[in-house]
Amino acid sequence: MEVATNNTAILSYDVLILIFNWIRNDYQVLFHCSLVNSTFKEAATTYLYRKVTYSPAFSPVLDLRRNRDDFLDGFFASARLPHNAPLVRRLEVSGYLSTRPPPLNKFHDQLRSAVECWPNLQMIVFAPRQYHESVFTEVVPLLPQLALLRSITVNAACSDEKHAPLLVEVRNLEVLTIESPTRAILQRLPDWLGELSKTLRILRLTHSCGSVTPGVLRSFIPHLQNVSAFALGLSYSLTDNDVFEFWQELPSLRSLEFRYYLQLRPSITPRLLHLRHLTVHYSNISTREHANRFCRWVRRVISHSPLESLRLICENEVFGPAVSFDPLAEHLTLKHAMRLRILDMRDCFVGKGLFLALCRSCTSLEELRVSISQDTLDEFSSVASSLRRLHTVEFHIRNRKRRPPLPPAFVEMLMRSAPRLRRVAVDREHFEQAFRHLNGSVTSRGIFEGKYRPQCAGRPRRPFGAPVMQASTGVQSWYSNYRFPPDALPVHAALEGIRLAE
Predict the structure, then answer these.
(1) What is the pTM for the complete model shown?
(2) What is the mean pLDDT of residues 472-488?
(3) How far apart are CA 233 and CA 211, in angstroms?
(4) Is 226 exposed, middle or buried (0-12, 13-18, 19+ CB in 10 A)?
(5) CB pairs under 8 A, 24+ apart, for 374-380?
(6) Rounded to whole angstroms, how far apart are CA atoms 211 and 169?
(7) Cα dihedral sign for 22, 27, 203, 117?
(8) Distance between CA 464 and CA 76 in Å, rounded?
(9) Residue 468, pLDDT score
């Protein structure tokens, strides 16, 4: 850091890069920072053009000017300028593309020329919901020429009989995601995985996986010995035993994502000795018997694992009575209390006694999301002091007829109940503790509502692995919520205490 003659701190490029990394998804802040001076512009531009996303929203009316305006002006055209093109690392094409064929639709040519001028692409997502069958015909043959390409996400637009032979020529991938895999790509996938076996670390087969049979899974095993993360969507062709036996054959497996469906037949207990992270997607559970079977299934998967994070995500809106998931909470308290850091059971109701026992035992928790009753929420502050690493909580209150507003004093009490707690969400009300730099020290300033907005239980959720769509037309950038480590204050507090040279 340099110091100017007027005692104003001037941040160097190396320091700014580290600061902007915390807000790399907040494009509005990055844009304003780029207007400060040339050093800020150089650092902010690195993140402004790192990700290019084209995701048109659905339109019932054909707009003949949309594609022309998107590529001749705006962000997409700016990213293709010679001084910005080397900065592009990720390209995403999703949403509802025009179904008009070329040459009436210019998107095909524009996309091909864009990929040709972005030689440093590392991640590509080609997963539109609506498209013309030849939209990627000229682009897929260019992918093997991208020397830095390490991650690909595709759906049926690139994995049909026409494109699959060209797609499997890509090498050196570390992450491969195929949404709703077709038979055309599954027939070539074992050989492709054999070519990628030295570099591939993450394999995800999401959405509808009905074509994935037990034989297909077994053909993957010799080529996935180095894979540390695996995801599998819904497939009624597979039993629990088929999936469990497949998982046991992956010695490096540390992270799992799976779409669960109820099966009545008994199954084995897999020995997943290295599993650290488990995410399970499921449909709404409204009966006690179904809840107990689901709890037994999860306990069976994690019984031999040093679990660090567990996420149970309901894919549709929760309705009906709040059935209890106490057996699973009891299992976590008894077997995984020392290691568990993230527990996301936002739609799983846990009774008062087991919830308090869970908070007393799982002292390493950093994020907690669960459904509880109102009287359990009132008791949370009495046990939260033992959760010294907890920085985010989200509670969904069940079994009550109406939802009164939260008193400000009660919210402040929740915020101060745990030493590092910064974000609190109760149903649809979200609060975040803010900080301000005063006299050389960062101090608490107050609690603000609406800054932190995770997905709520009352909102419809995306299907497992579905792409995120922008609700507007044209070239768009998707901004995800950035998150800070437990011992870090929000970056805005650090920036507020720095005087920038004009």
Answers:
(1) 0.84
(2) 32
(3) 11
(4) middle
(5) 374/400, 376/350, 376/351, 376/352, 377/426, 379/352, 380/414, 380/417
(6) 22
(7) negative
(8) 29
(9) 33
Tell which phi-psi region holds residue 29, choosing left (phi > 0), alpha (psi between -120 and 50) or beta: alpha
Distance, in Å, from the CA atom of 421 to the CA atom of 204, rounded to the nearest integer, reads 33
Average pLDDT value over all residues in the chain: 84
Element (H, E) at 335: helix 326-335
Is the dihedral angle over the CA atoms 486, 492, 498, 501 positive or is it negative?
A: positive
Query: Residue 449 in contact with residue 429, Cβ under 8 Å?
Result: yes
pLDDT in tens, 270-329: 999 999 999 999 999 989 999 999 999 999 999 999 999 999 999 988 877 789 999 999
212 or 432, greater pLDDT: 212
Residue 422 CB partners (closer than 8 Å, separation 6+): 391, 392, 415, 432, 433, 490
Look at strands 429-438 and 423-426 and give their pairing: antiparallel
Give the pairing type, strands 2-3 and 9-10. Answer: antiparallel
Q: Length of the chain in residues, anyone?
A: 502
> Is the Cβ–Cβ distance between 214 and 186 less than 8 Å?
no
Secondary structure letter of residue 324 according to DSSP: B
Is the link from the previous residue into 144 a cis peptide, with omega within 30 of 0?
no
Q: DSSP string spanning 343-394?
A: EEEEEEE--HHHHHHHHHH-TT-SEEEEEE-HHHHHHHHHHGGG-TT--EEE
Q: 86: which DSSP letter?
A: G
User: Distance (Å, rounded) from C-alpha 108 to C-alpha 91?
Assistant: 15
pLDDT at 489 over 60: no
CA nearest 155: which of 145, 138, 140, 169?
A: 140
Say if residue 209's pLDDT is above 70: yes
The Cα 468–Cα 259 span in angstroms is: 18
- Is 481 exposed, middle or buried (CB count within 10 Å of its CB: 0-12, 13-18, 19+)? exposed
Amino acid at 12: S
User: What percentage of the chain reaches a pLDDT higher than 90?
Assistant: 67
Q: Note the pLDDT tens digit of each residue in 262-275.
A: 999 888 999 999 99
Spatial distance between the Cα atoms of 432 and 324, rounded to a whole number of angstroms: 29
Sign (positive/negative) of CA torsion 117, 121, 124, 160? positive
Mean pLDDT computed over 376-380: 94
For residue 370, what are the CA distances in angstroms to 113, 392, 486?
A: 48, 12, 20
Strand partners, 282: 314
